Amino acid sequence: MNIQSIVVAGAGTMGSSMAQIFAGYYDNVVIYNHRDVTLNKAKQRIQDNVQTLVQAGTMTQTQAQRLLGALSYTTEWDCFSSCDLVVENLAENLPIKQAFYEKISQVVKPSAIIATNTSGLSINILAQSVRDAHRFIGMHWFNPPHLIPLIEIIKGDATDDNTAQTIYDLSLKINKKPVVVHRDVPGFVANRLQ
Ligand SMILES: NC(=O)c1ccc[n+]([C@@H]2O[C@H](COP(=O)([O-])OP(=O)(O)OC[C@H]3O[C@@H](n4cnc5c(N)ncnc54)[C@H](O)[C@@H]3O)[C@@H](O)[C@H]2O)c1
Q1: Of 7, 73, 142, 189, whose CB has the highest number of CB atoms within 10 Å?
Q2: How many angstroms separate the first and last alpha carbons of the chain?
Q3: Pocket lining: 143 vs ligand 1, CB cutoff 6 Å
Q4: Residue 31 CA to its chain's centroid (Å)
Q5: What gap in Å lies between CA 123 and CA 186, rounded to an integer?
Q6: C-alpha dihedral sign at 60, 52, 90, 169
Q7: To which CATH superfamily is domain 5-193 assigned?
Q8: Residues in contact with 186: Cβ distance below 8 Å, sequence separation at least 6, in sequence order
């Protein structure tokens, strides 16, 4: 599947950082949060990070402007209706995530992929709250996302191969090192080994 527009849901530590990374490679990256104050902090954090990269000579001013121009920020729910991919970064709390999935299932496109960055919740349990769970998958990043290349891609029982392949290809495109985890086990692989 050709991903063109991404919504990162949750503008905290992980969401804001991964949105910055996506925006280096995609032109349409929306950061959703239910609170304006969190969005404003995320915007400031991303602008500061990008400025630091420019000052360090890691990024040109033109690249910085392109990246910042690719990002938009919203508290409006309708951002989910047109995107190709949602990556959920809400607080690690099962009822919060379940309520979110039940709600976005009503508005996302049938073809949209829904991914979760959960560290420890079961993909199969979360999938029960997603309509058409074949397009639901774990996409587990590590903190800090701009330094750690690993992304675990965790298939639930219902996840189809197309969904896993699309997230795998996208992870390569953003210069990460993806690993597909074929079974939803506690701790996935990295945290389980640790
Ligand atoms: N921080 C890490 O080291 C790390 C690493 C890998 C994965 N994760 C996972 O990433 C996810 C986000 O973690 P984080 O560290 O960015 O957390 P965070 O606390 O920084 O951000 C959580 C986000 O959830 C939002 N939120 C809180 N309650 C909400 C509600 N009731 N409805 C909607 N949104 C709500 C907050 O506004 C915030 O944007 C979690 O699932 C966590 O397990 C975290």
Answers
A1: 7
A2: 33
A3: yes
A4: 10
A5: 10
A6: positive
A7: NAD(P)-binding Rossmann-like Domain (3.40.50.720)
A8: 120, 122, 192
Q: Summarize pLDDT for 131-165 with one digit per residue, the tens.
A: 999 999 999 999 999 899 999 999 999 999 999 99
Domain ranges of the chain: 5-193
pLDDT score for 1: 81
Calculate how far, in angstroms, residue 41's C-alpha sits from the geometric centre of ligand 1: 14
Burial 127-162 (b: 16+ CB within 10 A, else e): bebbeebebbbbbbbbeebeeeeebbbbbbebbeee
- 3-class SS letters over 89-102: CCCCCHHHHHHHHH
